[in-house]
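Hi R.,

Here's the chain you asked about this morning:
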Amino acid sequence: SPPSTRGLVEPLIATAMWRRTLLFSLSLCLARAAREGAREGAGAGARKSGPNPLDYAKETADIITCAGSHALPSEVTFMPSDSEEGVTVSRSVACFMRVVQTMAEEDGDDSDAEDSQQNLEIPLAKVDAESLGLIVDFAQSKLKHAGPDLQGLNFSVVPRPLSGPLHETKSILEEDAKFMDEIAQDLDKLFRLTNAVNFVDCPPLLELCTARIAEMLIGKTPQEIREIFPEVFEKEAEAAA
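And the predicted structure, written out as tokens:
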């Protein structure tokens, strides 16, 4: 329950090494857990809302096609925060991230139209190169069989409440569950990816990231949470000694 976990989440956030990556991802997952608990407490007759698979796919297709945004060049270059080397991707992959629409509009307002069509470079102040690579991999895997009209886009839908592991949830695609399980082997990588996905605003992947973290936290006792994050609590004990 929230009272039993609050005292454990605070030292996680307070640990300097993990503060940036844990702050967003843990607070978001605990907020989701609280909302789901409130819905369950409202009684069996309460309606449990969740994303509609068709609306979810349409919304993401609109993002990819940059509906309503300035026209984009065929390729976009992203500049991660920890590297001077940019990552150039196709327009379709780039538009998987909503931040592209905002940056494209700003670029269109501030530069010559012909130049903006030839080159668009987007700095990502809160996205490291490894996380950017994972986001690109996710987008490319979704576009692989989508076709030119994007009718073949297929996304996982995270149920609310999340009743079990992702790989046991029918609405979660097997490839997505495997993708998230591999990333979750390294908690630092998972938390950094969650923050990065939130920054670039990629809804399908953000849903999966927060659900994977929630899978590890929801329903756990304080001792079980300590076992999930042993390095963090060891550092806390060393700092307090």
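The chain has a mean pLDDT of 75.

Let me know if you need anything else.
M.
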